[in-house]
Amino acid sequence: MKDLFGYARVIAIGDIHGMYEKLTALMEKISFDPEEDLLVFLGDYIDRGPDSVSCLQYVYDLQHRNPDSVICLLGNHEVMLSSYLIEKRGIYNTLIGDYSESWLENGGFQTLQQLKETDAKKREELLAWVTDLPVKYQYQEFFFCHAGVDPDVPLSVQNEYDMLWRRRKWWEQYKGAETIVTGHTPIQKIKKGTRSVKPLFLSNRVIMCDTGAYMAGGKLSGVDVLSRKVWQT
Asked: Which GO biological-process labels does this protein carry (predicted)?
């Protein structure tokens, strides 16, 4: 059944991190219908896993085929990629900051090699797209961003750094009326020692969707934030 705004499902997908086979398997399970559903990718499409460029291409193509029903957000790994490209081109951007060395140390080296092997025109299309993605998206009472929020600041004036990088247990401190939907921090790092690898639905209106797709025993997860149904691979 569709909600008041016309969507049957509003599906958030956690950090993909180059896990192309898990991505395609998850999308098959979800059976995304662009006429009925809204799909929100929470960022970090690249690095750590083996197929970063394939993941970028898949998400890029999906959004370009369905621009009204697929939202792609910026993750901190895409910020590190942007910083690397800017540094190599001799430009400094104070908004992005300098994370170029951090990127290579956090999975970027393999991604860079894959990009070098990609057709030049396609590579430029992907890079122009992925480095210009939005940081946040709001739908009804649901606020989507990659990492988290400052619990002491209204959502309308959140800092981009917090939405892209924040950890610091903000999810324990949040008391707002909207539901925050994020990735970034794998639930394995929140509930250490747990055998359950499922998205977290916290009682203070926080949904955490990163289930460590690239980690040993980790999964890639999709969550319908309306019904709280979960799909995993």
From this structure: RNA decapping
Domain extent listing, the chain: 9-73+137-232
How does strand 70-72 pair with strand 37-41? parallel
d(CA 176, CA 129): 32
* CATH classification code of 9-73+137-232: 3.60.21.10
Q: What is the pLDDT of residues 86-120, one digit of tens each?
A: 765 543 444 345 566 678 888 898 999 999 999 99
The span from the CA of 20 to the CA of 25, in Å, is 9
Q: Which residues of the chain have pLDDT under 70?
A: 1-5, 87-101, 193-194
pLDDT digits (tens, 9 = 90+) for 145-160: 999 999 999 999 999 9
